[in-house]
Structures are given as C-alpha cells and as structure tokens.
Amino acid sequence: MTLHELFQKIAFDEVFDEIKRFVPEIEPHREDFLSAYHILKTTPPGEDDGETVSVTDLSYIGEGVHSTGINAAYYSDRDLLRTLVARQITRSDIFGRTPDEQILSDVQIVADCLWEFIAFGFVDDIVSDAGAYLEKYCYRRRLNYSLKYERETRHLGRRSTDEPNRLYRCARIEETCSYIDKYKVTGITGKELWTYKEVKNFKDVDFVTPYTLPQSAAAYQLNCCLDDNMWFNDETKTIVIISASRGYEQQVCEIKDFIHAHLKNPMILYGKNKLRGIVMKAIFITE
Asked: Which of 7, 21, 95, 200 is the most buried (most CB within 10 A)?
C-alpha cells in the first residue's frame, strides 16, 4: 500500500484522537495537523522512485512506542511531495522482530506521519491551494541540480570535480539556515553557517521523538540515534541543535552528557519546539 492509498482510508478525527491519547495538550495544534492531513490526502501521487516509507516498532524503548520514517528523496528531480505519497509503506525488521510481529494499525501509521510533518515544521512550508504541494520539503533546487550535474558528467570522467559536493553543501547549509529561523535557534547565525561551504563534508541528520515515546525515554532514544550516525563521517567538528519543550530539561542534560563524551569537538545549540518532546539536528563537519 502507498502512503496516498493509506490516507484515503483513514479519517482525520480517528488520527487526531489517537495522538490525543498520548498527548492530551495537543488540541491547540489541531489546525496544523488538519492542514498536513489535507495536503497529504489530496496530493496526487507521482512516479515510484523506489524509496519507501518505513514503519518501525520501537517497543524495545517502551511499550507501544513506534515511528514512521518519511525518508527524504536525495535523488529525485520530481515534485517531492508527489514522490513521497507514491511510496510504498514497509515495516522494518528491528532487534529480531519480523514485520509480521509488529502490530501497528493504519491509524497509528498516519498519526506518526502527521507528527513528523508538524514536528519538523513542514506545515509552515505548505502552499494550500488547488495545486497543493510542499514548497521546501527537504531538498531544494540547488541540491537537485548538483545531483543532476553529477549524473550528466559521470560518463565524461569528471566525477573528481568538487562541484556537485559544493552545491550539495550549499543546499544543506541553506536548509540549515531556514531551520535555525524556524526553531528560533540561538548561538549561531546564517552568516556563520555559510563559512562552512568550502569544507570537505557537511552532513546533517534530523531526529524527532515520536508522540508515543515516554518522556523518560527521550534521551535514550536520541542518544541511540546519535550513536547510529556518528561513526561514518570522519568529522572534525559537530554541531548539535536541541529544540525541547518545557519539562524536558533533564533529558536535555543527559543528551548533552552523551554529546560531550562521544562526539568530536561539539558545539551544542538550543531552539524552541512547539510540540511535546525534542527535535534535534546533528551536523557532522569535516574541515
């Protein structure tokens, strides 16, 4: 089943009631969730790009915890939202549990998708008209151009050029500048971020705590995410942006301790998160 097909089956009230079971204070954000639901339901699917929407049972963290990963399309030149809703939904194997052993309802999968959309601020980027689409879903024209350039020049033996990588870095820095504005991040400016445009590598990864995650497990989950991504970058510097809601101060302290103990030359910055939980961006820089 594709994401588009799933959204045709599920009513919004069912989804929002599911989220409210875990996050009773979510009611003021109802319109944001409804907007995201409407966009995803009414956008016509594009062509299949071979990527999937992965559904993961995270009950090893806590009973009933789960998440849906909306994998950004690094290699798509098509409209990103139409590509997203055309993707098949797959259940991920995790810790020896097969997909058949992971019992998640369709309502829970849609709820996970909407939670991720709202937590990452995508509703702010939605153009809600007859041709609804996400104007800035994740990767912008410069990134698409850089990948297109790499494909077109590969047969000419010109892959040694740094042009695609430089354009990729510029796209990621541009998106990070938008990110620090969106989350009202203090301690760094866009001008400072642009000083990294000529580095060897600028890789950023984003994480969000699921709506089903108990507060006490937030630091553990995000530290595991950092651990999964910190081994393969050969970085010389790390920037981590933590945007937490009120009440998560202890979890933020535990994340800070992990960062200082394990990441290279870390800089920790802070933003604001309008939903319950923590949104985090880690940037691995090789100078």
From this structure: 7
Output the pLDDT for position 134: 41
Given the structure tokens 């990134």, which residue do they identify? 143
DSSP state for residue 45 in the 8-state scheme: P
The dihedral built from the CA positions of residue 16, 21, 22 and 23, taken in this order, carries a sign that is positive
Q: How many of the other CB atoms lie within 10 Å of CB of 68?
A: 21
Q: What are phi and psi of 283, to 5 degrees?
A: -120, 120
pLDDT band at 150 (very low <50, low <70, confident <90, very high): very low
Around Cβ 103, how many Cβ atoms within 10 Å? 10
Q: Give the whole-angstrom CA distance, residue 5 versus residue 130.
A: 20
Helices and strands (DSSP H and E) totals, the chain: 10, 9
Of 55, 37, 77, 76, nearest to 1 (Cα)?
Answer: 55
Task: Please state, in angstroms and rounded to a whole number, the distance separating the CA atoms of residues 163 and 160.
Answer: 9
Tokens describing residue 105: 């309802």
User: Which is higher by pLDDT, 163 or 33?
Assistant: 33
The residue type found at 237 is K
Q: Whose structure tokens read 């796209």? A: 171
